[in-house]
Specification:
Helices cover 0% and strands 61% of the residues. It is mostly beta strands and 123 residues long.
Length: 123
């Protein structure tokens, strides 16, 4: 079994910063891609940022230049540094990791999700 645990959400004023963390634990052979998604009230979940095992990053246009995704392979963790936050960034943020794990059938890749953390940007 694999679990992802998120931390770092909260309430912040417009223009402020937050750093989200997500740590994976369990039967992990290797972690492939990692990413952050968000879901605002009444909207569908959307991709925020991703990072590959080789460190290649990708961002949705609305956060480019403000958010930075990073990973620490030794800690099985992914982070999202969010600067210059705007009210429209308010959402529940979810981390996602594609993890390769050993099963009785051999190595298999699965997607895992964190529990979600609320980010509220308001004055």
């Amino acid at each position: 079994q694999v679990q992802l645990v998120e931390s770092g959400g909260g309430l912040v004023q417009p223009g402020g910063s937050l750093r989200l963390s997500c740590a994976a634990s369990g039967r992990i052979f290797s972690i492939l891609a990692m990413g952050w998604y968000r879901q605002a009230p009444g909207k569908e979940r959307e991709l925020v940022a991703t990072i590959t095992s080789g460190g290649i990053t990708n961002y949705t246009d609305s956060v480019k230049g403000r958010f930075t995704i990073s990973r620490d392979n030794a800690k099985n963790s992914v982070y999202l540094q969010m600067n210059s936050l705007k009210p429209e960034d308010t959402a529940v943020y979810y981390c996602n990791e594609r993890i390769r794990t050993m099963t009785p059938m051999g190595l298999r890749d699965y997607d895992y999700w964190g529990q979600g953390t609320q980010v509220t940007v308001s004055s």
